[in-house]
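hey so u asked for the seq, here:
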Amino acid sequence: MTAVPPAAAQDLPVHLRDRGTGVATSQFGTYVKKGELLVYPYFEWYYDSDLEYKPSELGYGVAEDYRGRYRASEGLLFLGYGVTQDLALELEAAVITAKLEKSPQDPSAMPGEVKESGLGDVEAQIRWRFRRETQRRPELFTYFETVFPFQKRKRLIGTQSFELALGVGAIRGGPSGTWTLRVATGYNAGERKFEPGEYALEYLKRLSPAWRVVTLIEGTQVDEVALITEIQWRFRPGAVLKLNNGFGLTRNATTIAPEVGVMFSF
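ran it, structure tokens below
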């Protein structure tokens, strides 16, 4: 799972000692082996000091961009399962409460604060490793993601139409740590158009049998880029505490987004 037991780590080649032999999942620094089930309940909080929004997209007529203060708290459940040594499935669902404060420059009929709560994003992924890493070449993987439209009436939370993404990534490990590069393209069924998907450069380092750290730069467009740092503590077999925080590096990125949860392996 997310941490390699000390005895097993010493038996692995150097390029696998940070992560083990599993398939990369969408959770940072997390890998799943054949027959392994990962269960990760976690909580995330968001604060954006100047979220860009259009009143018309929230049902209030004016089709110009304004910036308001956004806050949200979200409880999520992630499930990952290793089908084979190179194929994994994922499912993630969330419940969320979000608030958006209206910009002072916004002349629309939108109230001073819009609040919505309920089901957040629900998504599934298929992840396939089509080339394993060796001492001379990196690991290569691909993934397909579907976000389901379970919130057709709400605008501030959830997803209103199908969103699809297809991505590819490469992993290279060594004595100094493990690097992962991934890029994706997306398709919004509601707008019927392709758009840039997520991209990220991730660094993972195993510090001891119990502790690992992850650092990455992640974005969706050139103006939505964040720095994310995470500490992972394997406090007992089959259980890892994950603490991370996201810091917006550009104006359109969320200002701050801390996360805490415990990942269990079965």
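The two ends are 9 Å apart (CA to CA). The chain has one domain: 6-265.
lmk if thats what u needed
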